[in-house]
Design goal:
Layout: E1 9-13, H1 18-29, E2 33-38, E3 52-55, H2 61-68, E4 75-78, H3 85-90, H4 92-112, E5 117-123, H5 146-164, E6 168-174, E7 176-178, H6 196-205, E8 211-214, E9 226-227, E10 229-231, H7 232-248, E11 252-257, E12 263-264, H8 265-276, E13 282-285, E14 294-295, H9 300-306, H10 315-327
Parallel strand pairs: 1-2, 1-4, 2-3, 4-5, 5-6, 6-11, 7-10, 8-13, 9-14
Antiparallel strand pairs: 9-12
Bound molecules: uridine-5'-diphosphate.
Keywords: Carbohydrate metabolism, Isomerase, NAD
InterPro entries: Epimerase_deHydtase, NAD(P)-bd_dom_sf, UDP_G4E
Cofactor: NAD(+)
């Protein structure tokens, strides 16, 4: 650890999941004391290698009170969200209950225990159908699905908290998080897997698993959806910068996190084929509910205010790290 930097005590909600485990590891590598709070519903105990672990559920205020009163935390990171857009369309109660009510419970436990710094995983899904090629944080907020609305409502709650209480937060609007830690000890593992890059790699490893492309007539150059893929380590670096930012900045702040480059589903399949060294077969399926045709970030606000710049600018390099993990996943 940099000796000039203070060692912090940090609670990582959702630290057994994909982003939370990479974050716990990075915080611990920077010399901070990490405590993970997770219900292990979608996360993995094998991903809990960094810090203490408290098993609990956001929907249970007693679990949160126990966790928040167990130590004096300097800040809380919140990655415990349900994240599957199509599920949110089918099961809105679960999404509002976990992502909004659960977050309110967490904020309440933080206030009860005098913790006033919060870093929240929001999403590009808050923007809905884009009216700009590169989306800035000022783009209208019009989510297309309950998942995106849970993120938007939480951001609004955080603004109200900043106005009413001495409560400071950063919300990161993630574009498409991808890749794995370069040493491949941890990586992305959702069951069932719904994300594009893991599905491409899994279909190349297990030939019986057919890759599906959802939709071929979006208003994009090749008819498939365009996304902005950002490496998991870059995403975590921005969260590290957020803790420093919150030392001196009051209020509720939102930042986009993306690379600023748009790749269609077909572009990603081609890039993955180059990494793997063979063509990847696919078939077209109907569109999924709630998918936006194009989501590409303008992240200049994070560049300026957080002094953050992604290191993984090349999609093939991002896919390579994911492939290393998927060839031999530990969980
Ligand atoms: N997608 C696809 N096949 C898959 C998974 C995803 O065609 O097996 C498409 C999906 O429709 C979207 C893009 O790939 O256009 C990225 O989807 P993902 O679930 O990875 O992230 P999202 O953008 O939905 O957060």
């Amino acid at each position: 650890m940099d000796n000039n930097k203070k060692k912090l005590s940090l609670l990582v909600c959702g630290g057994a999941g994909y982003i939370g485990s990479h974050m716990s590891r990075m915080l611990s590598d920077h010399g901070h004391e990490v405590t993970v709070f997770d219900n292990l519903s979608t996360g993995y105990s094998k991903a809990l290698k960094w810090g203490d672990f408290i098993q609990g559920d956001l929907r249970n205020p007693d679990d949160l009170e126990k966790a928040l009163s167990s130590k004096k935390f300097d800040a809380v990171f919140h990655f415990s969200g349900l994240i599957v857009v199509s599920d949110s369309v089918k099961h809105p109660f679960q999404y509002y209950d976990n992502n909004v009510t659960g977050t309110l419970n967490l904020l309440q436990a933080m206030r009860n225990n005098g913790v006033d710094k919060f870093v929240f995983s929001s999403s590009a899904a808050v923007y809905g159908d884009p009216i700009m090629d590169l989306i800035t944080e000022n783009h209208p907020l019009a989510p297309l699905n309950p998942y995106g609305r849970t993120k938007l409502y939480t951001e609004e709650i955080l603004e109200d908290y900043a106005t009413a209480y001495d409560f400071n937060s950063v919300s990161f609007r993630y574009f498409n998080a991808a890749g794995a830690h370069p040493d491949a000890l941890i990586g992305e593992a959702h069951r069932p897997e719904t994300h594009l890059i893991p599905n491409i790699l899994l279909s190349s490893i297990d030939q019986g698993r057919k890759l599906k492309i959802y939709g071929d007539d979006y208003p994009t150059p090749d008819g498939t959806c365009v996304r902005d893929y950002i490496h998991i380590q870059d995403l975590c670096e921005a969260h590290l910068a957020a803790i420093e930012f919150l030392e001196t900045s009051q209020g509720a702040h939102s930042f986009n996190l993306g690379n600023g480059n748009g790749f269609s589903v077909l572009d990603v399949i081609k890039a993955a084929g180059d990494v793997i060294g063979r063509k990847i077969p696919y078939e077209f399926e109907p569109k999924r509910d709630g998918d936006s045709p194009r989501l590409v970030a303008d992240s200049s606000k994070a560049h300026k205010l957080l002094n953050w710049k992604p290191r993984y600018g090349d999609l093939r390099e991002i896919i390579e790290t994911a492939y290393r993990w998927h060839k031999n996943p530990a969980f």
